[in-house]
Each structure stands twice: as structure tokens, then as C-alpha cells.
Design brief:
This protein has 217 residues and is mostly helical. It contains ten helices and no strands. Helix 7 packs across helix 9. The longest helix is centred in the C-terminal third of the chain and has 26 residues, at 189-214. It starts with a helix and ends with a helix.
Length: 217
């Protein structure tokens, strides 16, 4: 099977699998990460097949929509790639990427590293910040029926992985618990540069948010 056909089949599979998904984790999220990953990869020495497959399959079954079960995504991806007779080394690499891409509270030691994971992780993190990151954050908060903001509930910057996954904190807290931390956790030079503008936009948004919340000019 040609690489172009493999990617086309993967795109079709992901589109079908994510029909009706929550708006921040739907096909369009995958497509943006895929485009960001290819943009970053153009500046890096990486395997483009692994980058493409990893980006397209990284959220095929996000654990937050499967009762916290982190084994579903890797299992679905592996079965799909095996059906297409993809090389075992490529499958193993893609599965490791899916298993290790998530933020998970930022206090969990990443068990696997590769240049391809670095690229995809940066691409995924870019989609979590800036204007789209803000939109996704509030969309998910609404999906979970969370408060926009509660001044009495302070952000928790030292959550364990399980605390992070089960958090019901107001949406604004997520900016401090994850989104504003991502700029300094980018892996690639391209990712770092792209993150700067998006980070600044979030800071401006929060300044305006508090001004309006408190009734200030």
C-alpha cells in the first residue's frame, strides 16, 4: 500500500470514528493537529509516515470519553493499523505516541521519547492554546457542565494524574493548571515560536475576562 493511500484510509477511519464527538475533540481537532504536525515536521528530521499516522490517531479514543480508560485508544489504533498490514515497527511507534502524548496533569513522567512524538505533542499542545484553545476549553467546560469561574476555588498546580483526570474545577482554572504551562513545555524550536503568540493571546483574554467579571474599565 502506498503512503498516500495509507494516510487517506486513516483519514476516512478517523472521520467515521469521531462522528458526533465533543466539539473540542472531533475530526476538526485531529485535522488541525495533523496540519500543525506536518508544518513542524518540515523543520525536523523525522519519519513523516509516523508523524502523520500518530497525529491522525492520537485522539482516536480519548480516555476522558471512555471512563478514564487509557487502553482504548491504543487498542483501536493498533487493530486498525494491523488490518492494513502496516509494518510492526511503525505500529509500535504510533502506539507509544498515543500512550505518551497526553498532558495528564503535567506531573507524570513520560515513559517514551522520540522526535516524532515531540512533533505531534507540540502540534497537539498548539491546538490547546490561543484562540482555538480558549474555544475548546470552554466548549469542554460546557460539555461537563462546569462553572465558568469561581474566585473561591483556586487552581491546583500540583495535581496527581488521577486528580487531574477527575477534576471538576471551573473552566478558568484550567488555564493555570494546563494551558498557560504549555508554552514552556514545547519540544521543538518551531513549536516554541508558534506557541508564543498563542500564549500572549490567552493572557490578554484573561485580563479582559477579569476586567469584565469584576466590573472594571
Amino acid at each position: 500500500m502506498t503512503n498516500d493511500l495509507l494516510i487517506a484510509k486513516t483519514v476516512d477511519f478517523v472521520k467515521e470514528k469521531l462522528k458526533g464527538a465533543e466539539g473540542g475533540h472531533d475530526w476538526f481537532h485531529i485535522d488541525r493537529v495533523y496540519k500543525n504536525a506536518n508544518l513542524i515536521a518540515s523543520e525536523e528530521d523525522v519519519d513523516l509516515t509516523i508523524v502523520s499516522l500518530g497525529a491522525l490517531l492520537h485522539d482516536i479514543a480519548d480516555s476522558k470519553f471512555h471512563n478514564g480508560d487509557e487502553t482504548v485508544g491504543p487498542k483501536v489504533a493498533k487493530e486498525f493499523l494491523e488490518e492494513l498490514s502496516v509494518d510492526k515497527n511503525i505500529i509500535d511507534h504510533v502506539i507509544h505516541i498515543i500512550e505518551n502524548i497526553s498532558f495528564k496533569g503535567g506531573n507524570t513522567l513520560q515513559k517514551f521519547k522520540s522526535p516524532e512524538l515531540d512533533v505531534i505533542q507540540d502540534a497537539d499542545r498548539l491546538d490547546a492554546i490561543g484562540a482555538i484553545g480558549i474555544a475548546r476549553c470552554f466548549n469542554y467546560g460546557g460539555f461537563k457542565n462546569r462553572a465558568l469561574y469561581n474566585p473561591e476555588i483556586e487552581p491546583n498546580l500540583n495535581m496527581s494524574k488521577e486528580e487531574y483526570k477527575s477534576s471538576t474545577a471551573p473552566t478558568i482554572n484550567h488555564f493555570y493548571e494546563k494551558l498557560l504551562l504549555l508554552k514552556d513545555r514545547m519540544n521543538t524550536e518551531t513549536g516554541k515560536k508558534l506557541a508564543l503568540e498563542r500564549h500572549s493571546f490567552m493572557e490578554e483574554f484573561l485580563e479582559q475576562f477579569y476586567k469584565e467579571w469584576e466590573g472594571r474599565r
